[in-house]
Amino acid sequence: MDEHRIATLIESLLEQPSETAWLEFKENDSNPESIGKYISALSNAARLEDKPFAYMLWGIRDTDHGITGTTFSTTSARHKGQPLEHWLTQFVSPSLNFTFRSVDYHGIHLTLLEIPACESMPTEFDRIAYIRIGSATPKLSDHSGKLKALWGKIQSHAWESGTALAFIDTERVLDILDYPEYFRQTAQPTPDGKYRILEKLHADGLVQRDAGDNWNITNLGAILYARELKNFPPPIQRKSIRFIAYDGNGRMSPVRYRMEGSRGYATDFPAFIDRIHDAMQHHERIDRVRRVSQYSFPEIAIRELVANALIHQDMTIRGSGPLVEMFNDRIEVTNPGVPLITPERFLDFPPRSRNEALAALMRRMRYCEEQGTGIDKVIQAVESHHLPAPDFRTEGDAVRIVLYGPRKFADMTPEERIRACYQHAAFLHVNGKRMKNASLRERLGIDLRNAAQASSVISQTLKADLIRSADPAHPRAGYLPYWA
User: Fold this and answer.
1) What is the signed CA dihedral for 452, 453, 459, 465, rounded to 10 degrees?
2) Pairing mode, if any, of strands 23-26 and 53-58?
3) Is the backbone peptide bond immediately before 94 cis, with ω within 30 degrees of 0?
4) Span 73-124, pLDDT tens digits
5) What InterPro entries would the database entry show (predicted)?
6) What is the CATH number of domain 3-157?
7) Nearest to 348 by CA among 257, 240, 448, 430
8) DSSP strands (E only) in 144-214
9) Which pTM value belongs to this model?
10) Which burial class, exposed, middle or buried, applies to 403 when counting CB atoms under 10 A from its CB (0-12, 13-18, 19+)?
């Protein structure tokens, strides 16, 4: 925090009409246990009040905000033989990056303590969580209403609302973020005046107000609309999406094309999908009198899978972003994070995302399907092109989806046939239908003369406990996925 921001922040704190749940003024009170309780109480109160930080400011009279100065300084304060700040860190949990700063404010010594709002759970001091009620700091457990409300705030707080860059003036915000693209993609007219533009960005959670006339760019704003990801700290930079096309079927094959996104997802997404499309192998067929190009992979499936990788990744995993790899026989889309839903239930479970605001904006921009229909579109496209069933799987702390190129039924492995049968039964069920021998024959491109092949696949899938008979007493009633 530079000197200009500190001065501006102190001025904005002094302008508060009174102490708030997230702000405490002191003159010289430096009792270590009291400060520890305040850290817990103010951190929890800040989350309840939707503030990214809470503050304690020494050298201010709380009755009239008179600037008295203070003798309290953490550079010399010690407790139990340790520097005060070090002692406090041992008793505050979860670990919290609170910061003391000595300030020369117009020649008067003040001490500022900046306390981040709690994130994953209430902040505790010495194993007890406190809360701010009026000027008191009682135990949080004694106020069940506050405790319930706080957990609600914690559960709704996401990586997206975190701060990517702090204390940025208006000109710099509009320099860093591609705001014209935001208005174009969300079909809104660009407002007149910089302040009105920022108000719109603020309404969608892309920026937040900071001290004075300055702003914070949120993680959501940075990851979606950064003109250059390199303008942001490494956790954002390293979330860029990458594309590698190999000239072969393995990662040891020569690389024929490589691309790494340098801008925000919303800005880069259309060009990224175009690059994948351009790198795809295709063949030509004659449609009556015209020559038509046909690509190995359905574009809508690729578009949806890439969008899902962006939306559902675990943004808290550092140094890793979504990766798209194209081989001659398949495309693999990998995104960091263990899935919130078991992969075999992607098709039917209500969608859950770690990044709800990101998902909502991507849908508004029509970069992905409406909530809950994306995987349906992938399966539908794969089936209509008679491709092998995609493979949804967890690998370590990542999700990998494999989309296979064209392959005849005779060339599919038993596992691929069983997976196709299960997905076909699930897809029909969520669309109000039942799988039968005839529908599976069509799905797998099996000629009517070879209907026994479809029956064999159904039998193997039944043995794998992935499907069941809709009515055991009536074999022609069809089949359902095991969970139906």
Assistant:
1) -150
2) parallel
3) yes
4) 888 888 888 889 999 999 999 988 899 999 988 899 999 999 999 987 899 9
5) RecG_C_sf, Schlafen_AlbA_2_dom, Schlafen_AlbA_2_dom_sf
6) 3.30.950
7) 430
8) 163-168, 207-209
9) 0.76
10) buried
